[in-house]
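pls ignore typos typing on phone
iron/sulfur cluster + seq
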Amino acid sequence: MIITQKRELKDLMENIKDYKSFFLVGCSECAALCGTGGEPELSAMKEELEKQGKQVTGTFVAKTGCQVLGTKIELKKTSKEAVENADCILVMSCGAGTQTAVELFKDKAVYVTNDSLFLGNMSRLQMFDERCSLCGECILDKTGGICPITTCPKGLLNGPCGGTNEGKCEVSSDIECAWVRIYNRLNDINRLDDMKKTVEPKNWAAHKKPMKLNVREQSSSKKDKA
Ligand code: SF4
Ligand code: SF4
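k done
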């Protein structure tokens, strides 16, 4: 999931000072779980804006804010008038959800209320850890399923470095050394020989910005070749 954090309210208020009426958009998936864009956060934002003399024409929590077509259909069904009556849209989700709104509300100003931080795993309620950096060419098959690109601060493909100390990382004693974790994991699954294999330099071109994937096109070209 995409981990988001609320931005400073005073910065948001500065950004939106020229607008009077707002439609608020949240997301029931990642933003709701992060406590940045579910129903309670939208209600709190509505209250805050009204306290500051602004008008809120409506609120809407998208099922999945980064799903453009689905969000468009939901919005049309539930909030057409409220959207029309607003002169600014506030999006309380991630940067992807915000750009859905930019695409859907072509004639409205759109502002984001959150910073998007990373792709995270939720270990406990509202506790998130980064495990994958979406590098485009996964090496987990070579590292016992633990990602050194993300969980080693140096992103070492072959490790550990000389700074590892009693299982901790030299960058911070709060971080377990990713390569000690990899070693222990390989040991546990009787794959320690994999430690002797050098991981080849990564093809960073596998992650070109902006990434695109059209699964339907891919499967029809596979069918044509078969
Ligand atoms: S190698 Fe790491 S960053 Fe790359 S896809 Fe796999 S888990 Fe994600
Ligand atoms: S101590 Fe371990 S986790 Fe830290 S930088 Fe070195 S190899 Fe990476």
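The mean pLDDT is 96. The chain is about 35% helix and 20% strand. more later
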